[in-house]
């Protein structure tokens, strides 16, 4: 029997924001694939906390207002003053641009890979974050090549049926 309850995002995140403003840390389940492979959809959980603007540095993972009605958890890849350049770890397109004021919470820890805890202060987490951002050009080249070869394959073999 499934004991879960579905709550509309606007109501859910309104409550999350209230709890964070009260100084509480909030644990939520990751939904979506834009942060894969770092976070896995429906398996991993993240802990959100309040923050000081000085903490919003490259490699930080944040909950931010993508639009007035949409929230998203992505990684800061660059900061220029109060302007943040943000991208999901599983995204291979351009940055999203946000202001410091658009950030609702900072990811400070959680559980991943079948319940293993992590903290943003762990050396392993810091190394993974730096590595994943650093190899972005290689990841981008790999996925573009894979897409290109897949397109050629489909065009060559679309008429062959087994």
Descriptive key words:
single chain, 162 residues, alpha+beta, Umud Fragment, subunit A, 3 helices
Overall description:
Helix content is 29%, strand content 31%. It is of the alpha+beta class. The chain has one domain: Umud Fragment, subunit A (Ribbon). A hairpin with an 8-residue loop joins strand 5 and strand 6 (96-99).
Number of strands: 8
Which CATH class applies here? Mainly Beta
Helix content: 25-40%
Class by alpha and beta content: alpha+beta
What is the residue-mean pLDDT, rounded to a whole number?
Answer: 90
Q: Could you tell me how far the N terminus lies from the C terminus, measured between alpha carbons in angstroms?
A: 42 Å
Oligomer: single chain
Q: State the helix count.
A: 3
If you consult CATH, what is the topology? Umud Fragment, subunit A
SSE order in H/E notation? HEEEEEEEEHH
The CATH homologous superfamily is termed: Umud Fragment, subunit A
The outline comes out as: globular
Q: Tell me what portion of residues adopts beta-strand conformation.
A: 25-35%
User: What's the number of structural domains?
Assistant: 1
Low-confidence stretches: none
Q: What is the architecture at the second tier of CATH?
A: Ribbon
Largest sheet: 8 strands, antiparallel
Integer-rounded radius of gyration: 18 Å
